Amino acid sequence: MTSYLEGLIKKEISGLHLNFIEYNKFTECQKVEKFSTVHKSLLEECELPVVLKCPVDDSYDREREFVNE
Protein backbone atom coordinates (compact mmCIF):
# COMPACT_ATOMS: atom_id res chain seq x y z
CA MET A 1 0.00 0.00 0.00
CA THR A 2 2.91 2.36 0.67
CA SER A 3 4.17 2.20 -2.92
CA TYR A 4 0.64 2.99 -4.15
CA LEU A 5 0.50 6.06 -1.91
CA GLU A 6 3.98 7.16 -2.99
CA GLY A 7 2.97 6.82 -6.65
CA LEU A 8 -0.22 8.79 -6.08
CA ILE A 9 1.66 11.58 -4.30
CA LYS A 10 4.36 11.71 -7.02
CA LYS A 11 1.64 11.95 -9.68
CA GLU A 12 -0.03 14.85 -7.87
CA ILE A 13 3.30 16.61 -7.28
CA SER A 14 4.19 16.49 -10.98
CA GLY A 15 0.65 17.26 -12.20
CA LEU A 16 0.01 20.18 -9.88
CA HIS A 17 3.54 21.54 -9.86
CA LEU A 18 3.90 21.05 -6.12
CA ASN A 19 7.38 21.07 -4.64
CA PHE A 20 8.68 18.09 -2.68
CA ILE A 21 10.93 19.11 0.22
CA GLU A 22 12.71 16.60 2.45
CA TYR A 23 11.26 16.42 5.97
CA ASN A 24 14.64 17.21 7.56
CA LYS A 25 14.54 20.68 5.95
CA PHE A 26 11.88 21.77 8.46
CA THR A 27 12.53 23.04 11.98
CA GLU A 28 10.46 23.98 15.03
CA CYS A 29 7.67 21.47 14.31
CA GLN A 30 4.59 22.05 16.44
CA LYS A 31 1.52 19.81 16.45
CA VAL A 32 -1.52 21.82 15.30
CA GLU A 33 -4.36 19.29 15.56
CA LYS A 34 -5.07 16.84 18.37
CA PHE A 35 -6.28 13.93 16.26
CA SER A 36 -4.63 14.26 12.85
CA THR A 37 -1.01 14.70 11.93
CA VAL A 38 -0.91 18.36 10.95
CA HIS A 39 2.16 20.27 12.07
CA LYS A 40 3.23 23.89 11.86
CA SER A 41 6.91 24.21 11.01
CA LEU A 42 9.56 26.46 9.48
CA LEU A 43 11.21 25.73 6.15
CA GLU A 44 14.83 25.81 7.26
CA GLU A 45 16.49 27.54 4.31
CA CYS A 46 14.18 30.59 4.27
CA GLU A 47 12.40 30.34 7.67
CA LEU A 48 9.04 30.34 5.89
CA PRO A 49 6.17 29.12 8.12
CA VAL A 50 4.48 26.09 6.55
CA VAL A 51 1.97 23.40 7.45
CA LEU A 52 2.93 19.73 7.08
CA LYS A 53 0.21 17.12 6.70
CA CYS A 54 1.07 13.42 6.88
CA PRO A 55 -1.19 10.50 5.98
CA VAL A 56 -1.80 8.06 8.82
CA ASP A 57 -4.45 5.72 7.42
CA ASP A 58 -3.70 3.07 4.80
CA SER A 59 -7.22 2.92 3.41
CA TYR A 60 -7.71 3.89 -0.23
CA ASP A 61 -10.38 6.52 0.52
CA ARG A 62 -8.21 8.32 3.07
CA GLU A 63 -5.32 8.44 0.56
CA ARG A 64 -7.54 9.96 -2.13
CA GLU A 65 -8.89 12.52 0.37
CA PHE A 66 -5.33 13.43 1.42
CA VAL A 67 -4.12 13.93 -2.15
CA ASN A 68 -7.25 15.81 -3.24
CA GLU A 69 -7.24 18.17 -0.24
TrEMBL record:
<protein>
    <submittedName>
        <fullName>6048_t:CDS:1</fullName>
    </submittedName>
</protein>
